[in-house]
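Sample intake sheet
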Amino acid sequence: MTQLSDSRLACLLRLEDAAAELRDQISQFTMVWPGPAAAQEPIYGRERSVRRRLEMVEQLSKALRVLNKHGQFYRRAEAQALYAEGLTMAELASVFQVSRQRIATLLREPAEASALP
């Protein structure tokens, strides 16, 4: 049980880091968002702005992927912990709003995979 608790804590800490990165990306994105005056500029004058915005979208997408990955790791570790505490696959499926087959898959995956970086 301690290994599951450690996995869940590690996942939560990684989620916290990923959420902070996402907050930073959103903050940067909103600071450079073009205002109404930028909409009146000629298109060729916005090329640099568009390039920077595309870079920021990619950074934001990357932060979201990391957040999702660690969220999945936590979800797996939590499902395994709850199952070990006596919840049935049907109960877990209801709580997680997935099929029992998906819960069975989560439970089969090794717990230590949840703690991977």
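Comment: The chain has one domain: 2-115. Residues 2-115 form one domain.
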